[in-house]
Each structure stands twice: as C-alpha cells, then as structure tokens.
Amino acid sequence: ILCGAGGLMYANYFYNSYIIGAFHNFPEPVAKELRKALYFTNQDLKPHQAIKFYKKTLRVAEDVGMDPFSDEILGVKFQLAAFMEKIQKYHKAIQVLEIVRNDCLDWIEEFGNTPENAGKRTRVLGKTIGISVKLGELYAGEYVKEPELAEEKLVWAVEATMKEQQRREKEGVKPGEGEWLTPEQIGGAFEGMLDESRRS
Asked: Which helix H or strand E contains 74, and what residues bound it?
C-alpha cells in the first residue's frame, strides 16, 4: 500500500491513514471537542452526537486559527467522512469529501504557485489526489452506483499525478517542494482502478 510522498494511497487505505491519535497536535479547546466526537464514534455510538461534535471541533479550530489545510484539520474532515460511511450515509460521506476536495483545489489554484507554499502545495495536492481516489471508490460502490462519476474522479487523480510528475521532470524540483511518487509507485497505485470503475 502506498501512502508515501505526495500522500497518494489506495482508496481502501484512505481513512486509516488519517486516524487521529496525536491529540497533542491540537490546541486543547479543539482536542476537547474532538475527544467527544470520537467517543460517540468509537465508544458509545450515537451518530447525532458524533456529528455535532465533529462540526463543533471544526468551528473551534477555525476560531483559534488552525490552518484548515493542516494534516490535523484535514484529518478531522476525513474522520467525519469515514463516520458517515460507517453509518451507511454514503452520499453524506461523498458530500463531505467533495467539499474538502474543492477547497483544496481552490487553495492550490490561488496560493499553490508562491515559492513559500511549495511544500504545502505538494502535500495538499497529494491529499486531493487521495480524496479523488476515495471518491471514485464511493461513487463506484454498490450503494451509490455512479460509474461515470467514479471514472471522472479516478481519471482526474491519474492525470493530476502524472502531470505533477512530468512538471518535475521538465522543470526540476523547486526548493522546498519535497518528494513526489516514482513512476513505479504511481503505476502500482492506480493499476486496475479505472478498469474496475468501468465494470461497476
């Protein structure tokens, strides 16, 4: 399973790579609400309460000035999507991930080309590709059955990955950008995905 440079991963590994265990990375007011959300997710399953506290976590995080594109805050949003999938609210999971994906794309377009954001761009682009792969899986699933949307997201993920690889080969790696996936890793990650979406 690939979850290395760039953040690309198999769809079925998507959520597990964002399991939130490092509460010390969150300011205490945010961690307090997140603990409640996870309690009603994992210990005492109460969907309404869990969703309420995930949303409150994000509101408090915004209030205290946490970066909405940090691994921690993206992780909270991915955890919320995972919870929606867990309770079989597949369209809600898709809605959450589509919003996050669009926000990431907007950030990349507006801020991703400035030199000081080079490393962050690599990370956010990698997350966006991972989101797209997961969306492809959800759209292709038996409870949603939207194969055209699944293919659209998977094609975008492949093209975005290859475009970034080709840009680096042509222009060279810019200072602070960090590593990207090798062609071998890219091929292994996407092998069979498009064929599977077309069969759905």
From this structure: helix 71-86
Domain ranges of the chain: 5-199
What's the pTM?
A: 0.85
* CATH architecture of the domain covering 5-199: Alpha Horseshoe (1.25)
- CB 20 within 8 Å of CB 28: no
Please count the CA atoms within 13 angstroms of the CA of 89 that sit on its side-chain side: 14
Report long-range pairs for 154-160 (Cβ below 8 Å, ≥24 apart).
154/190, 154/193, 154/194, 154/197, 155/194, 156/132, 157/129, 157/132, 157/133, 157/190, 158/190, 158/193, 158/194, 160/125, 160/128, 160/129, 160/132
Q: Are 193 and 136 in contact (CB under 8 A)?
A: yes
- Identity of the residue numbered 93: A
Query: How far apart (Å, rounded) are the C-alpha atoms in residues 90 and 139?
Result: 9
SS3 content of the chain, % helix, strand, coil (to 5): 75, 0, 25
For 45-77, write each residue's pLDDT tens digit.
Answer: 999 999 999 999 999 999 999 999 999 999 999
> pLDDT for 17-38, tens place per residue?
554 556 788 999 999 999 999 9
Closest CA to 137 of 121, 124, 125, 153: 153
